[in-house]
């Protein structure tokens, strides 16, 4: 029987290993899997590479992982926000590496990993500092940069609802990076506000369960 | 020589579809496999035209003409099904998310090469569909076919002579005579159809079969 | 005011010009915009390149365009089906050119066009006849083929429902190529089984209206 | 010299947002533009975190904490809105489907170069967000900014000195002193803030302004 439900956040994150590459969904405070991140912070597992749009704000979420010294590297589009105190502290102390990726290129590199694409050309970043050292090509008169897929060991995903098959749907702008990240990791872990007893309506599924490995409930909204 | 019926080959292959597998079944013989998977295993079948969780044919009068599989047969949904578009469908395939694809073949070679989309007859226009995407993206490619052509010529070969669907992609071959694994050293016998010997099968096989 | 509704199939296809590249949604008989194709057949506009998964069956749909001699070129993954009599007749007479593209590569090339991607590497087709003459590259030990975006002048789309903003949703496996084709043409024309008076629920939109130019009603299901 | 208020610059730019336009508004001054678009024009605003059809701030007590724009402000939906994920959002941008993006800037150059994501101060970590995707994908890039820095140094330049967001991407610049088009020959004056002359504006502009 297919049943991807696990009993607790703690069990859900138990498979994360030191040095893992971890994708974390969310944009601003919407769609961040706070429950899973807290559980990961409690494990103390370190040396992580975190791939996310932001690098945390305040004391919660990715900030908690940075505060606990679990993050060796951050790949994101926008690390510096008014609340990104823990990221800035670790970065300025040289304790965390940073790779800044344009937001759309970040999403597309993640999609490439999830979709078996070996790399792609995008105009984004051509002629800028972020293209330095990268392969470029002129296509139909425009400059393009070659970008590579971005794979992960683990994806931590926030959904509105999940069923036992791992089918997911999302709420409003909490969708953001979650669906694409769910496709790009070896092991995709979901916290859902609701874990349904019944199967989701097939037409309403946004992330088909094939992309999901574990589902647990975490009711709190930010 | 004892030959299994197509149904019995499908039944044999079905034993190797584990519980919780995500599986794409090609058109024809591969499509028979679903019906023989042992009870108690929950298998999710994907059809590339946008459905994960393909259910059986609809009951009389309950057909939805817009709910079909890749062979254009009317199907149904099952609990856990989801609909999606073609890009998501091929992300599943190409991204390595399916576990098994079961495909028919014109020819299979001992190096794992598969030929199942075109012959050397160029009088007809070619047609490839999703076969080339499946073979590169799905980790286990199971071929199901008759062991020899109608004229007795071999289909299990040293090298394919027809245009390839993909090089080195086949994991295992299920025929009416035998089950063969593709290994680094070529074909290795897994199973014989009851009543046959390896020598019987080797006699109608161009490639060498290791025991 | 944004109002993409047009009064008839005939008006909807009036902008199609001789020599246009026309994407046509559908797989098997599901999701084919039969109404729009019929209207296009009636215009007699010729020299078209048709991009679709199949090349028509029976006397309807793409077959009608082939029968009427309007098609100069077909780009598809699976032209030969039991009913593809008109395609075969035109092909064997040398009256229509054919480019066969693996189905997933077809979808991905269309997506690249719609998403501003200049090209991508896929393992699909590597080491086969369909990769001949194409750029290849070894990435992490696997062979990849470089594939280019596939743009169109016109996309003909079948949807289940549309609103005046051009938002679309689909029914069952009639979704298939329709959402991605809607993104890749200069001008996207939709026939919807229902044209809604009210806006679609934002969470249920599959194709956001920004990708759509014209919407008309055609109630018939295949 | 007469300087328009930020609101008045936004009001001026808003006149150039036509009915039925699809528009992305950057954080800060660009975000003010929506409120000044003349009545009777239906404009769909996109926010890159997954909403087309961004509505005004929610009424007291009706906020949804998971319904925000790219600046993390609480927003609402409007009739015709749709939600989608990040890949679809950037397909809209990168694929050329939006009509206009309104962005802030540190510097704009007469060749259309834009610098709005990093300065030469490397003590802070860089942050780029979606700016580089927008400038390559949206056909009309409108910059809205103050004409000079607080210390009086020019922002409308011959060449940018800060790291570029994109080369040759700006269509038009709206400042508290003037509206300038980027042409093949450099900046060309479109409008002056009331009470100023071209000479006044040229005096605080490094690049040459054609009349």
UniProtKB/TrEMBL annotation, chains A, C:
Q: Which UniProt keywords apply?
A: Transferase
Q: Which domain of life is it from?
A: Bacteria
**InterPro entries from the xrefs?**
3-oxoacid_CoA-transf_A (IPR012792), CoA_trans_fam_I (IPR004165), NagB/RpiA_transferase-like (IPR037171)
Q: Name one GO molecular function term.
A: CoA-transferase activity
The UniProt record lists the keyword Transferase = yes
Gene3D superfamilies, per the entry: Glutaconate Coenzyme A-transferase
Listed name of the protein: 3-oxoadipate CoA-transferase alpha subunit
UniProtKB/TrEMBL annotation, chains B, D:
Q: Which Pfam families match?
A: CoA_trans
Signal peptide location: none
Q: Is the keyword tRNA-binding in the record?
A: no
Cite the SUPFAM superfamilies for this sequence: NagB/RpiA/CoA transferase-like
Q: Which UniProt keywords apply?
A: Transferase
Any one GO MF term held by the record is: CoA-transferase activity
The membrane-spanning stretches of this chain are none
What protein family is recorded? Belongs to the 3-oxoacid CoA-transferase subunit B family.
Name of this chain's protein:
3-oxoadipate CoA-transferase beta subunit
